[in-house]
Design brief:
The structure holds two protein chains of two kinds. By secondary structure, chain A is mostly helical. Chain A is built from three helices and two strands; from the N terminus they run αααββ. Chain A has a two-stranded antiparallel sheet with strand order 1-2. Chain B is 39% helix and 12% strand. Classes of the chains: A mainly alpha, B alpha/beta.
């Protein structure tokens, strides 16, 4: 059963800041959703191979040729903060 | 110019009027822009209406008719706002992308642009396509044109409502667990999810990459086929895209002689409303009148599809949405003390509640100690769901079910209960897990609201589905007549008396 400590830990992994009320509400909602999902454990899947992809497509290759990419100016156009042709971010602690 | 009714006009007819010179592309665009002006304040299907582009480009198509010809030239279209459009803001209905200006265009959109369609605007949706009512949009609530008190379905609710309200001739949507078919059903239009890989996902802002597919919403099966023809095919920019074994044909079938249609009892167990069930049974009877043969067929793992989907889709989403970190594009939260704090605040403030919920489920399901119990098991269940379909399609040509267990429900009635909202997609999710093509067509009304009829086929059976749906559509004779009524006001008026 998922608890508030689990929710805080997972939020940390997901880089999501949750407010105090959100942790509480999320814990209840996730418990209910995961409770429904646990229905899967009724099935014996030990001998069933997993499906990662529905098409029989493997190793799609293309020639390794140099092609034009996006310019630095285009890459920075949507950035919230830019400094001397780079993405600007707050300091790392 | 002939008087045109945007609630009834199809692309097939519009094209003929254009070719015969009875209407110009600019006049056609104006029909929709006028309808948008008239009903959009009530329906709110669009996040952005590109008035100037539509007026200018349609005029250009008229002027340069010789150079800009083609099967779609001059026909107006609406695009779901999770497909990137160069130079036109693309938000995915999320605060985190509120001002995002793409520097490239999604392949599916590029293909219709290259065919000289006229873009009317970008349609509303559930944030990052996560939802079944379009109520998860960060910006506005879209209303169902049949009853403004109800939801249009989702996540492509803006595209479906725009087509139903006559604000667009047709539209592009995307379908991860039913996001084209369910809103098409609730709004009384046709919507098709192609086989996984049939349409390039390049430029479709990713939700769950192994499930997402772009597809058409339109007023007829023929129009769906016409639009689909122009967006399918392998794209070097999407290594999971493939060429179809045969080109999409424009449907002309009137009969269903010899067509074997399976009816899975497991889909009927999932809380189907009596009114939906009644329209479904009538439509099954019509299949037999047209020469088809209906029989029960079992898909025993159906009840496990929804739980598997709600691990696989959130798991893929949690990885795909890691890119929204306030560094390269989109919203960045103020007041962060350091980089990690900036990430957490940006994502905490930028994403809405449902997106956060899915990121949390996905991250949990992929985290150490839970991977095998959740993600690993869900992928094995996905295999069982695929095998159910493989066995069934050894005996029948198509499978039929209701698209949605209910008709359009009241806005706000399910937002407090995520699991109740997830149940909207119980009939549509299995086709996504198995990568199969499926269509929803309107099959009548229940309580004055449209009911959707779903046909699912084997991989790459688009033509079979389109032919069957076309014949059935002719027999049903559904009348698109959204009244723009508001049952809340009706209710209030009755109470006031």
């Amino acid at each position: 059963m998922i608890g508030e400590d689990d929710v805080r830990y997972v939020a940390k992994l997901a880089r999501l800041r949750l407010e105090r009320g959100e942790v509480e509400r999320m814990t209840g909602e996730l418990a209910k959703i995961l409770g429904h999902i646990d229905k899967m454990s009724e099935l014996d899947t030990a001998d069933v191979p997993p499906t990662a992809h529905v098409l029989d497509v493997v190793n799609v290759m293309r020639p390794d040729k140099v092609r034009p990419g996006i310019s630095r100016e285009e890459a920075l156009r949507n950035a919230p903060a830019v400094s001397s042709d780079s993405f600007r971010v707050p300091r790392m602690s | 110019m002939t008087a045109l009714d945007p609630l009834r006009l199809t692309a097939k007819v519009a094209k003929r009027l254009l070719v015969d010179g009875r209407v110009s592309s600019a006049e056609l665009a104006k029909v929709y822009l006028d309808q948008i002006a008239a009903v959009e304040p009530r329906v709110q299907a669009f996040i952005l209406v590109t008035y100037d582009n539509a007026a200018k480009y349609s005029t250009k198509v008229d002027r340069e008719m010789q150079a800009m010809r083609g099967p779609l030239a001059g026909l107006p279209i609406a695009i779901k706002d999770n497909m990137v459009t160069e130079g036109v803001v693309t938000t995915c209905a999320s605060r985190i992308l509120r001002n995002y200006m793409p520097i490239y265009t999604a392949t599916a959109v590029r293909q219709v642009w290259d065919d000289h369609v006229v873009m009317l605007g970008k349609t509303n949706m559930d944030e990052f396509a996560m939802g079944s009512s379009t109520e998860n949009s960060s910006f506005q609530i879209t209303r169902n044109p049949w009853d403004l008190a109800t939801v249009p379905g989702g996540s492509s609710g803006g595209s479906a409502a725009a087509v139903a309200a006559g604000e667009a001739l047709w539209a592009l949507g995307s379908d991860t667990g039913g996001s084209i078919r369910q809103p098409a059903a609730l709004c009384g239009v046709v919507g098709m999810k192609p086989t996984y890989g049939a349409v390039s996902r390049y430029g479709l802002i990713a939700f769950a990459s192994s499930l997402d597919q772009i597809g058409p919403l339109a007023r007829s099966v023929y129009d769906c086929a016409l639009l689909l023809q122009h967006i399918v095919g392998r794209d070097p920019m999407d290594s999971t895209s493939v060429d179809l074994p045969e080109p999409i044909a424009l449907p002309d079938a009137q009969r269903l002689d010899g067509l074997r249609v399976g009816i899975p009892p497991e889909y009927m167990a999932a809380g189907i409303e009596p009114g939906v069930r009644a329209r479904f049974d009538e439509t099954v009877a019509r299949i037999e009148e047209l020469g088809g043969v209906c029989r029960e067929i079992s898909l025993p793992h159906t009840e496990y599809a929804l739980p598997a989907y709600y691990i696989i889709a959130p798991a893929e989403a949690s990885a795909n949405l890691a890119r929204f970190d306030g560094v390269r594009y989109g919203f960045r939260a103020e007041g962060a003390t350091d980089l990690l704090d900036m990430y957490e605040r940006t994502r905490g403030e930028g994403f809405g509640p449902e997106v956060k919920r899915r990121i949390m489920i996905g991250t949990y399901a992929l985290s150490a100690g839970y991977y095998d119990a959740y993600y690993g098991r869900a992928q094995r269940v996905r295999t069982l769901v695929r095998r159910d379909f493989e066995r069934a399609f050894a005996e029948v040509d198509l499978i039929a079910s209701p698209t949605s267990p209910t008709v359009a429900f009241a806005a706000g009635s399910r937002t407090g209960d995520p699991l109740a909202m997830y149940m909207c997609d119980v009939c549509t999710i299995p086709a996504n897990l198995a990568g199969l093509p499926a269509i929803s067509i309107p099959c009548g009304l229940s309580d004055g609201l449209p009911v959707g009829f779903q046909l699912i086929g084997p991989a790459f059976s688009e033509n079979r589905i389109l032919q069957a749906a076309h014949a059935l559509e002719g027999a049903i004779g559904f009348e698109p007549a959204p009244a723009f009524r508001d049952s809340r006001q009706l209710g209030a008026a009755v109470e006031a008396q």
